[in-house]
């Protein structure tokens, strides 16, 4: 049985997952549930914001109820409520924030608004995971792709962001071009395994700095598929993945060469990619640093990472911030 006030209830609704979890101070996940909207958005090949808001509104309370029921938990076990306040879609964010504020009022519990990106950072420390600092971080998701340096668990310095698309977005667009549906990442990965990377797609900005650019790669795939509608899809998928992975691996290696770090942390939805896991393991072996990855279920959006970040916010005594922010830098709280 759980001690009174020993868990944070984390709520995530910034995009297309309604996710809730109960997490202890040490990162142990006591209960978690994620309600995916993938089926709703599949026909649009991407997230349809209005439908996302409606689905969150329908799912948020049942998801909270079922998460509590998993371990027979009640308000007495909850120390605080942590909820994503941004970045993300305004409607979906408001659904989570309103639910959290209502619960906080009803249960007389503090509510902390958490930066989704800081949640991803903490995902590698859920369920016994450990990050050794200083660390280089690659955050690769649908909304973001960036490299950062963390001197310790709470300080984040951005080394490079993306000039255009995120890598997850490129995966999703390529999936759409190949008729693979949404979300594209897992589908492209699966198809890529059945092909060989015989087509040489561009590897944007691979030789310079720590910034990213993926729109050129995406457009190159689009042009090819337009020009040759009968092109072998597994070959295209494998060639796209090879190009994307070369870029991500090269940037990780460069960041590790430029900054003194004890580990590389790879988080965000794209960290679920087996190819990215393999490639970053090679980079770490060559650089002699540790690799920290979230377990697969905490790679994509979830409530547990928000709850764990919520513990940090409580520790730091930050003023609770419950204003939604569609744009929020990882350096902010
Ligand atoms: O972190 P996340 O769940 O949501 C955002 O914060 O954006 O990331 C979602 C992204 C999507 O673009 C999805 O296609 C990608 O992560 N993704 C993957 C895989 N699983 C999810 N990309 C590559 N390989 C995967 N296995
Ligand atoms: Zn995310």
Q: What does this molecule look like?
A:
With 333 residues, the protein is an alpha/beta fold. It has two domains: 7-122 and 298-315, 2-Layer Sandwich (Nucleotidyltransferase, domain 5); 132-294, Nucleotidyltransferase, domain 5 (2-Layer Sandwich), CATH 3.30.420. It has ten helices and ten strands. The protein has helices spanning 38-42, 49-70, 90-107, 116-122, 167-177, 184-193, 215-227, 233-258, 274-287, 303-316, and strands at 7-12, 17-24, 29-36, 78-86, 111-115, 135-140, 145-150, 157-160, 263-267, 290-292. The strands form two sheets. It has a five-stranded mixed β-sheet with strand order 3-2-1-4-5, sandwiched between helices. Strand 2 (17-24) and strand 3 form a beta hairpin. Helix 2 (49-70) runs parallel beside helix 3. The chain starts with 6 loop residues before the first strand and ends in a 17-residue tail after the last helix. It binds 5'-O-[(R)-(carboxyoxy)(hydroxy)phosphoryl]adenosine and zinc ion. 5'-O-[(R)-(carboxyoxy)(hydroxy)phosphoryl]adenosine binds at residues 15, 141-143, 168, 171-172, 183-186, 189, 268-270, 272-273, 300-301. The site of 5'-O-[(R)-(carboxyoxy)(hydroxy)phosphoryl]adenosine (KG4) has 19 residues, from helix 5 and helix 6.
